[in-house]
Predict the 3D structure of the following.
Amino acid sequence: MGIEAYRKAAKDLIDWICDYYARVEKLPVRSEVEPGYLPPLMPRKAPDAPEGVEAVMSDIKSKILPGLTHWQSPNFFAFFPANSSFPAMLGDMLSGALSVMGFLWSGSPAATELETIVLDWLAKLLNLPSCFLAYGPDGNLGRGGGVIQGTASETVLVALLAAQARVMAERPAEDRQRLVCYSSNQAHSSIKKACMVAGTTHCRLILARPELDYALDPADLSAAIDKDIASGLIPFYLVGTIGSTSSCAVDPIADLAAIARKHSMWFHIDAAFAGVTAMLPEMQHYFAGLELADSFNTNAHKWLLTNFDCSCMWVQDAEPLKAALSLMPAFLRAKGNAYDFKDWQIPLGRRFRSLKLFFVLRMYGKHKLQQYLRHHIALGELFAGLVRKDNRFEIVTPPRFALTCFVLKGPLGNETAALVDAVNQSGRAFMISTELSGQTVARFAIGGAQTQQRHVRAAWQLICEAADGLLATARAET
Amino acid sequence: MGIEAYRKAAKDLIDWICDYYARVEKLPVRSEVEPGYLPPLMPRKAPDAPEGVEAVMSDIKSKILPGLTHWQSPNFFAFFPANSSFPAMLGDMLSGALSVMGFLWSGSPAATELETIVLDWLAKLLNLPSCFLAYGPDGNLGRGGGVIQGTASETVLVALLAAQARVMAERPAEDRQRLVCYSSNQAHSSIKKACMVAGTTHCRLILARPELDYALDPADLSAAIDKDIASGLIPFYLVGTIGSTSSCAVDPIADLAAIARKHSMWFHIDAAFAGVTAMLPEMQHYFAGLELADSFNTNAHKWLLTNFDCSCMWVQDAEPLKAALSLMPAFLRAKGNAYDFKDWQIPLGRRFRSLKLFFVLRMYGKHKLQQYLRHHIALGELFAGLVRKDNRFEIVTPPRFALTCFVLKGPLGNETAALVDAVNQSGRAFMISTELSGQTVARFAIGGAQTQQRHVRAAWQLICEAADGLLATARAET
């Protein structure tokens, strides 16, 4: 494909993308295909001779699109949002075109330096304590700073490995089997997975109780730690959550930090979804105590208009990270005002991912980004207010960060699951359910880049209609 | 940024990208900036108010470009290639625009199914044994298949974890500390890193000798295994390499496979760079014995025109992978003709990465892709021939897969390192050196998507001129 053919095909694709964004809200949000729908529609092997872009795009439209759940639909209220935005798409397109590798500073210096700069920018925007900044006031690199990981799961694992390297630095190898990791049982599943990958035998997921809105109780944590220490184990890694996956629960960060300090544990804060709200003055109370954390994470690819993958991680001190992940002895690592991001992550290769965040931060600017988050938070309050006023429903945990968890009360007890199914089958909105204290709970997560009040009101209407139908049937049955 | 503003900005960017590709060969290949060049050129924080795309692009041109090493330059002969192509860029642009998450089949069914189909296509193109295909002749999923990982490093780690899950399934937990991983010392550094991450204490990097062109000697491997078994250790994971990083050495796959079978070890083949040549009949001899491997990997993002990240991994049996990486007990996992790729990888989130490979396989087709690889291999032979005819140089290991490793012979003994520096400082070509048997060796790797004979000849000219200068100076000094 020559340059001119690409120019034409790419501009046609831009037009298609514009058209897609203009009509995505009209598409059924959730795909209703059955497993195995695609193989019968596709050839069994790649073609021998080249095909034109028209043929490929024709298959995209007729065969791929029906199998997609439209995460960019303004009617998508499932999981957490996976924001895209036009500025991020521009940055990512540029990154794809330049196709440089950023694993060594020397492999393409701008890739490393822009990432470091942009994460300093984001850290300041999020009011992170200055101990998380890479560049000091003198313009020189300090001990800490930011790095873009692929996902929060990788961040949780990388922080665990750093924690392990730090605690094991002066211990005999056999102590590795005595290390204990802690979080609430509402924390992300990636903590357990990180323990599986790293071979951390002891992973305590401490029950977070509804009385505390599913936040981890510091007293419970302390009790668990004391018990482990009494059994000869070594607490080494604590993950606090700001905005849990199920219900956006927020752990008491300052209290947890104090416990972590007391026991010399690495304290990681997983704020994958909600961390971006640290840029709002009215949300500061959730983030008090951050200066006592060793690492902090939020995903710009969730609620900050930056296409996947862009999981932003900051550390106060990168040395334990490098001790865990660098194959070079410390004296051979990049020196002076440079570092090699291969030593901060599990993969070797890495894309020029900071470009998309650079475009987002510059083309939105602080005020628009704050406005963007407040827009969704207000929509969340609107939605929660609608649920609260309707006595067929019950809100089970305080709505937060534009997420509302609620149940439909009915005689059969399974009405909530049925409600979520009915809403999703309509194709007009998509949400998921979760489990809290053994109960199935509907989970309405707002955060789509295009989501406006009318989409939330229409979804509520849909929920009410589905509830009417379900309750009528349930009453007839009982 | 509204749709029309994006349409205009994106089309302008396409024009810029076209222009970049037209002129990239004239840009200095390697950036010559100093560490810390960028922070003084950038504001200390993100702007408060939105900036226009022109302002951002202006900074890209004046501040970022000078800090880039141009991996897409046809004069780039360093590391291994990191191919981009216009079809892949189209697929990736589409993926960015759709921004769906593919971690669950149900999260966007087409993302999982297209990935599975496209990796079956690529497996067939590469003549992989049918045991690596996902879909059987009946169109149903079998036990194995392909998955796109981010990098070969992640693949090596994921395979290690699968190997561990398999061997540990019927052993007591304390045996984990007795597991031993093997590869040649020419294998990729990611093997050692995988052991660090997973906590595999025993990692044997067996010396590969120059007499065997740096391939692993099966006798040496067997001896190491026997010794470990005699010490009460448990061999569990063997990595064979087809195309090592330093010199493109190829391990004797069938022999290693037999040893792996004998000891019930997981046998992974890392063919990150050279694996794509399996599509060439004349290269089949390197791949004999593949049906005895448990997993195989090649990176489409190196030499197959597919932008990073696209590390293609196949397994004969995905169950051990899921046992290692799934948080769900087996009976709860996705059933029927579907699976969830979150259970095949370390991260949770995943991009719709198969789209770019889909565009590449269709828009090139088998014959053009074969022609593409043969083009570089022929250029490699041309270059090796030029080196061979010039008695100032010596080729130190058989040139293979378009990589030539050579030294400049001179009285000081440091001429090769100086040669590489001189070439790189010219900005007209970029190559790196490596170390083989303690000797610094120049490493000329061909594989740029735009690299033609004239670029190779010009680079050779440059090398010769640099050698002239260095040898004259060296003679004057001695």
About this structure: DSSP finds 13 helices and eleven strands in chain B. Chain B touches chain A through 132 residues (CB under 8 Å).
